[in-house]
From TrEMBL:
Pfam families per UniProt: LRR_14, Rx_N, WHD_DRP
Disease resistance protein winged helix domain sequence ranges: 452-530
An example molecular function term from Gene Ontology annotations: nucleotide binding
Domain of life: Eukaryota
Ranges where the Disease resistance R13L4/SHOC-2-like LRR domain occurs: 581-740, 748-882
Protein's organism: Miscanthus lutarioriparius
GO BP annotations listed: defense response to other organism
Stated family: Belongs to the disease resistance NB-LRR family.
Residue stretches making up the Disease resistance N-terminal domain: 8-89
Protein name per UniProt: Rx N-terminal domain-containing protein
Annotated InterPro entries: Disease_R_plants (IPR044974), LRR_dom_sf (IPR032675), LRR_R13L4/SHOC2-like (IPR055414), P-loop_NTPase (IPR027417), RX-like_CC (IPR038005), Rx_N (IPR041118), WH-like_DNA-bd_sf (IPR036388), WHD_DRP (IPR058922)
Keywords: Coiled coil, Leucine-rich repeat, Nucleotide-binding, Plant defense, Repeat
PANTHER family per the UniProt record, alphabetical: DISEASE RESISTANCE PROTEIN RP, OS11G0579400 PROTEIN
Length: 918
């Protein structure tokens, strides 16, 4: 909370200072009010800086900080609105007077917040003793400050490779036998008991063990035969409590989606319903969906207390009343005596065949790579965590941050873990608490922000970074190095992601073709940890349903003005927009992320959005929007506009200027097809926005269609802050030379260039070789011959190459020695190519090849591609020669053959993931 409060106050102070510098913007008498608010905020900011160093804050301090956050954000919002109206002075004087009145009211609030601190004795606590052990954020080993880059890369690779210890063959055999035996029992018709005239209605299977038990349960649940045995199934993985388990099961068997924290509203209309009442309601609803059905329910519960395990079992048996015989419930637990006392139908053991600590020894070996030797206390800590792989992995991250920890510190860690084991508390949560205590305070709000995303989401790093910046959680900063290098907010956000990874809070499942981290996930243990912390500090507003948090700004203070109609989907953000937009706080939103939402064109939703005057981040990605309203021009504070994967062909028919816009992301995903007519029917970029030369804060422009207009070409050349550019070009070689020359003028600022070229009637212009920033190239109908391929081979920065319909007319695609030195990804989607070969020292960094629609397929020289890890062949051709060549390689690349591919929509989605603008 201290980090969030300080970020809000810092942002406000910057805005007030700039406002006071221009007295002409202030109405008479308002300057004194603004000065008073600024002075109060400066004093409070000094207190907050002390609070960030204090590790323990009482409830009075937290309540005061929460009030301060609200005051700061309200003040900044009204100041921004005031300045926005100043741009339209003559026609907005009444509106400016209203806002000025609001600022005067905020002055009174500022005085009250200060007085309240004194009235209730809110005392700033002392910093924790031993403060020198707390990480201060200036780690010499941080990615962008490492004195020895090779040393940093080696240690980073260690963390990336240390996800899991290698599978133990004996463990794999335990899982295999467990799955085989359990599936056999599930397939059997239930036997009749001697004292019962009918077979058992539901069978309860118990699996004894921990991680292996969960693996057996999951693989049984996913087994292909389950669909033929049961008419419905449900899974609840490690639920926090019985309500969570029942809500998850109800969602799967009945399609009733209950958002976290909303079970009460969905289950009963009585606001004061007890926990028992809610459980009974959930059980009744599940029972209604399971009647006359043969079902399978799997619950992994080995982390729950004994009484919780028993309650879940009893609840599921009650819900099973009325189901068909042969239904089954599978539950896991580590407690043998608990299983025996519950009289299960069948007991399975999923424990290692002998007591061993392979996992802990694996992580001990990894820790020795971080330092010359491994102290006995570190070994003891890993042995204490040997049943919890996530805890061991996270502790390795903790050692990465500070390899040489003091003996007394390690002893404290050891004692705390022993106490967790004695009290049957989570070891993972304890290790995460240590990581959190050493996280720089300025990044704690960024970590807590992750709670707005649904559990299990794969979150794009670039989208998250831009949201952080728009929310004010990340700002441009100056490093503490001697050079005092100025970082942009984007650089600071990327550094924050590095810091969160180093401390084990996030993991990265997807790396782009350029080697950049594209997305990340949050482990369930981490999510539960930050959920508890964010609740403790009131990080996210609770006025709205929890599932809306991922779409809106945090601290939005918007309340629903009216309930949505019965005919609307309660989980669809579009259904809430009319009610949300009626709130006076609507225009103060800074983030609106509507990715994947449908129905936005209805009920004038887009026009309502255009009233959010302070909006900074706006995403319509993958929505059904086809046209943007002319009212978009009102969004003068917009910094990110994302309309990718929409059918919006043009930003506006008339010139619209967004003076603060930094990221313009557009274009539908590329359609890869061997049918020319289908290729022509799709577009991959929007038209170049009119007046683009006036948006001189642009850093990313992708993907836009550039015509032969000289004004468009010169407009691009004036964007001197542009870092990434994605352009679609169509025309002859001569016509391409002019845009190439204009793009080359950006060589001092441009870091990455992506070109989509189509319709060439002659060879590629040789000037393309001079575009050293060219990283991604997509060609369609360019009719290149071998000479053209030789030109492409000289591109020093090319990492991703797509050769689509009629792009290359030779039958042999050959890579010569010393060519394509940086190429990482190759897509061949033209039927003319029947042979691919590579010479020695050609394409030394090529990792993935996708080859689509060859009439015949022959490859050679793949042994020269030393880092090739995946080869995908699509189309009705004989794959035997390709398969034999790949199987003969010593590195065993993955080979996939999709013989029935007619249209490359799905394959395009996979390959275009690296083509989409960052």
């Amino acid at each position: 909370m201290a980090g969030a409060a300080q970020g809000a106050v810092d942002s406000l102070l910057g805005r007030l200072t700039s406002m006071l510098l221009d007295e002409a913007q202030l109405l008479g008498g308002l300057r004194g009010d603004v000065e008073f608010i600024r002075d109060e905020m400066e004093t409070m900011n000094a207190l907050l800086r002390h609070l960030t160093e204090a590790q323990h804050r009482n409830h009075l301090v937290r309540a005061w900080m929460k009030q301060l956050v609200g005051l700061a954000r309200d003040s900044e919002g009204n100041v921004e609105l005031y300045l926005h109206r100043f741009l339209r002075l003559l026609r907005s004087l009444p509106a400016r007077h209203r806002i000025a009145t609001r600022i005067r009211e905020l002055k009174v609030r500022a005085r009250d917040v200060g007085d309240r601190r004194m009235r209730y004795g809110v005392i700033v606590p002392d910093s924790v003793p031993g403060e020198d052990n707390i990480y201060d954020g200036n780690d010499e080993e941080s990615p962008r400050m490492a004195a020895d880059p090779e040393k940093y890369l080696r240690r980073s690779a260690l963390l990336l490779d240390a996800a899991e210890p290698p599978p133990d063959p004996e463990d794999e055999e335990v899982v295999r036998r467990g799955v085989h035996t359990l599936i056999k029992y599930l397939s059997m018709e239930p036997a009749r008991e001697d004292a019962m005239p009918a077979p058992l209605q539901v069978r309860v299977f118990s699996i004894i063990g921990t991680d292996l038990a969960d693996r057996v349960a999951y693989e049984v649940y996913q087994h292909s035969s389950v669909a033929t045995i049961f008419s419905c199934k449900a899974w609840s993985g490690a639920p926090k409590n019985i309500e969570t388990a029942l809500a998850e099961i109800l969602e799967q068997v009945g399609g009733v989606q209950l958002q976290p924290g909303q079970e009460e509203d969905e289950v009963t209309n009585q606001a004061a319903a007890t926990t028992v009442d809610r459980e009974k309601q959930l059980i009744c609803k599940i029972q209604g969906h399971l009647k006359r059905k043969r079902f399978l329910i799997v619950v992994t519960t080995h982390r729950l207390q004994e009484w919780e395990w028993k309650r879940i079992r009893v609840a599921l048996l009650e819900a099973a009343d009325g189901s068909l015989p042969g239904s089954a419930i599978i539950m896991t637990t580590a407690d043998y005596f608990l299983v025996m006392s519950s009289s299960p139908y069948k007991i399975f053991h999923a424990r290692p065949p002998r007591c061993r600590r392979v996992g802990s020894e694996f992580y001990i070996a990894k820790s020795m790579d971080l330092r010359d030797k491994c102290p006995a206390k570190i070994r003891d800590i890993f042995h204490l965590c040997h049943t919890d792989t996530f805890a061991m992995k996270t502790f390795l991250h903790l050692l990465y941050v500070n390899r040489y920890r003091r003996e007394d510190e390690l002893q404290n860690y050891k004692n705390a873990l022993s106490e967790c084991i004695r009290l049957n508390r989570s070891i993972s949560k304890q290790v995460l608490a240590w990581c959190y205590s050493e996280l720089p305070s300025k990044y704690r709000s960024c970590l807590l922000y992750l709670i707005v995303f649904p559990e299990g989401d794969v979150i794009r790093t670039t989208s998250l970074s831009r949201r952080w910046v728009a929310e004010g959680l990340i700002t441009a900063t100056t490093t503490s190095r001697a050079t005092d290098e100025i970082w942009s907010s984007t650089d600071e956000a990327e550094h924050c992601l590095d810091v969160l990874f180093i401390r084990g809070f996030i993991s990265f499942p997807e790396i782009s073709d350029e080697g950049n981290i594209k997305s990340y996930t949050v482990h369930r243990e981490v999510r539960e940890f930050i959920a508890r912390v964010s609740t403790d500090v009131n990080f996210v507003d609770s006025n709205l349903p929890p599932h809306l948090a991922q779409y809106l700004s945090i601290h939005n203070r918007i309340g629903l003005q009216k309930s949505i109609s019965d005919g609307d989907d309660s989980n669809d953000i579009a259904a809430y927009i009319p009610s949300l937009s009626a709130s006076p706080q609507w225009q103060l939103l800074k983030v609106l992320d509507l990715e994947g939402c449908k129905g936005l064109d209805k009920n004038k939703n887009l026009k309502s959005i255009c009233k959010i005057l302070l909006l900074k981040y706006f995403s319509l990605r993958n929505t059904d929007v086809t046209q943007l309203p002319k009212q978009m021009k009102e969004l003068q504070f917009l910094e990110t506009l994302d309309i990718r994967q929409t059918k919006v062909p043009v930003l506006a028919k008339k010139a619209i200027v967004f003076p603060l816009l930094k990221h313009f992301l557009a274009g539908d995903k590329i359609s890869v097809s061997n049918d020319a007519r289908k290729s022509e029917g799709s577009f991959s970029a929007v038209e170049m926005p009119l007046g683009i030369h006036r948006m001189n804060n642009l850093e990313i422009l992708s993907h836009v269609q550039v015509t032969n207009s000289s004004s468009e070409h010169s407009g691009i050349a004036k964007l001197l802050k542009l870092r990434k550019l994605g352009v679609a070009l169509r025309g002859t070689s001569a016509k391409l030379s002019d845009p190439f020359r204009q793009i080359d003028k950006l060589h001092k600022c441009l870091r990455s260039l992506s070109l989509n070229i189509s319709g060439l009637t002659s060879a590629l212009p040789h000037m393309i070789v001079e575009l050293h920033q060219l990283a991604k190239l997509t060609l369609t109908e360019t009719y290149l011959n071998e000479d053209g391929l030789r030109i492409l081979g000289k591109l020093r920065g090319l990492r991703c190459l797509r050769l689509l319909h009629k792009s290359y007319i030779e039958s042999e695609l050959s890579f010569k020695q010393e060519e394509f030195q940086t190429l990482n990804f190759l897509l061949v989607g033209t039927s003319e190519v029947t042979n691919i070969n590579s010479a020695v020292w050609a394409a030394p960094m090529l990792e993935k090849i996708i080859w689509s629609f060859p009439t015949t397929a022959c490859i050679s020289g793949l042994g020269n591609l030393y880092v090739l890890r995946e080869f995908e062949l699509n189309g009705e051709c004989d794959p035997d020669q390709v398969r034999e060549e790949i199987e003969g390689l010593w590195k065993f690349p993955v080979f996939k053959h999709n013989p029935k591919v007619q249209n490359q929509e799905d394959i395009a989605a996979a390959s275009a993931s690296s083509s989409s603008a960052p």
